[in-house]
Write a structure and sequence with these properties.
CATH superfamily of the largest domain in chain A: HAD superfamily/HAD-like
Oligomer: homodimer
Largest sheet of chain A: 7 strands, mixed
Strand content of chain A: 15-25%
CATH architecture of the largest domain in chain A: 3-Layer(aba) Sandwich
């Protein structure tokens, strides 16, 4: 059976109808993009990337205890949300970026891989690879079996997701679009070229409208299918829907407190007070209810 | 026979030895990058992209003759190299970028496609698709048949090359890294999201060291094979050579005035007075002599 973890119903039918309709298109037009956090894997109670950064902080403080005195790190170590709010997210993010500055892509990949080997989800005590959404993995495979090229377009760090995109999703690193940290070109002691991570973002954070321009800048292709779960995906979902021919946009709705979490993004992008889920439905975006549409979550 | 347009000899043997050695590597490590101008197609007497821009200028002046009075455009229309030198390349490039500002990716692609349909090479009077180097097309195919992922890393515009990368090279637009012009996210009259080209570069011109960082930023993968033809490819060639395992870097040497052109880049990147070709050979880069190594050029 196709999409076996999707319950019979309108959402599953809409997906299969779309995929069958896309069979009529030239193969090169079959382009699908997926957000990652909350769309392909669980993002609660904290983004996995934030937990990785905190892990990096613990490691750095272990090597050099004086780092714990730095204001931004102190607030994180103490879980002091008042201090964090006062310092501001931007300064905290900058301080965290420093923890991986000066290392090359291989070393960064190794640190991410090590984190995922050692880490367990705070609430469920399982490894993160077990917290991919099974219905969405099936959807990736179903699209690929219909000759779609599948890309991940994450608000998180591109390099963070690339480090696990193959084992988690069978997606090649070059098919991951995300927030980018710049590299410095340098030479090692033997004179060979090396790349070293800087502390500077390259371009904008990959959320909202920048997701759309970064899809074009990095991929040069227009998606006809997009999946997301938050207002930061809104423009990307609309962009896919507005393409020629059969198109579809899917919004994962976290409405399952028993099996996952229950929460909803605020509709900041659309400057409205309405629920983002309702608003999305009004735009022609198909809602995937975790509670009703998924027979299995993980 | 493999690589039939390559003459028997050291260069062809080195290519085949490298490709056979790479058979031992995991498939995901088989990454090859190719410069475009002068490496995959003929770049003399003028870059095809420059001829496209001049074609755009003629079209724009046809629509609005007053544009011909603008200093930067006047110098181009009159082939006035003294005036061009006085104005400077940067201002001229900025003025040319304005010709495609405000249009979307589809319209840009259509203009490039139209240019290549109408245009003939100034010296040879053939279409540009006939000016791809046949030995290099065979090399692309040979690498792909050994499960390499092949990427184009051009100093030219990414979108310009993407517009023809499929018909010319069987390379998907997402596998093209190049100089990028930024996009503005906007909405059309129906409220649908659209992307419009701006006049601003996004990041740096993709030449020299930026080729290496852009490979990592856009692809997140390390090449073990690289091909180029000029000092602007030097860092990319060195970077591929310095990877683990079997690696190879290839420099196309334009030493065939009879069948193509005879010219050599200056070795500016390495801050030396030597010939770039000699210098490259000293670094372990394999030289492909058009005259000696290629039985057929086009």
């Amino acid at each position: 059976m196709r999409l076996p973890s999707w319950n019979q119903g309108r959402t599953r039918s809409a997906l299969l109808d779309f995929i069958d309709a896309a069979d009529e298109l030239p193969v090169e037009d079959r382009v699908a993009v997926f957000d990652n956090d909350g769309t392909l894997w669980c993002e609660k109670p904290a983004y996995p990337q934030m937990l990785f950064m905190l892990d990096e902080l613990r490691r750095a403080v272990g090597d050099d205890p004086s780092l714990a005195e730095r204001e931004e790190y102190r607030a994180l170590i103490d879980h002091d949300s008042a201090a964090q709010a006062e310092i501001g997210l931007e300064r905290i993010a900058d301080a965290l970026l420093e923890l991986c500055a000066g290392i090359g892509p291989d070393e960064f990949d190794a640190r991410v891989a090590s984190f995922f080997e050692r880490s367990r989800h705070p609430d469920r005590q399982v490894t993160y690879i077990e917290l991919r959404y099974r219905p969405m993995l099936e959807l990736l495979d179903e699209l690929r079996s219909h000759e779609f090229d599948v890309f991940i377009v994450t608000g998180g760090g591109a390099e963070f997701v690339r480090a696990i995109s193959r084992p988690f999703y069978a997606v090649s690193p070059d098919a991951v679009v995300g927030s980018l940290v710049g590299y410095e070109f340098a030479r090692d002691d033997a004179g060979r070229p090396v790349l070293l991570r800087t502390t500077q973002l390259f371009g904008e954070v990959n959320e909202g409208a920048p997701k759309v321009s970064n899809i074009q800048l990095q991929l040069g292709r227009r998606p006809i299918f997009a999946a997301g779960n938050s207002p930061g995906d809104a423009e990307m979902l609309e962009y896919a829907l507005a393409a020629d021919g059969p198109t579809m946009a899917l919004l994962v709705n976290h409405d399952d407190a028993d099996r996952e979490y229950e929460y909803e993004g605020v509709a900041g992008t659309f400057e409205t007070d309405g629920s983002f889920t309702e608003l999305a439905a009004g735009l022609g975006i198909t809602i995937a209810s975790m509670r009703d549409d998924w027979s299995t979550v993980f």
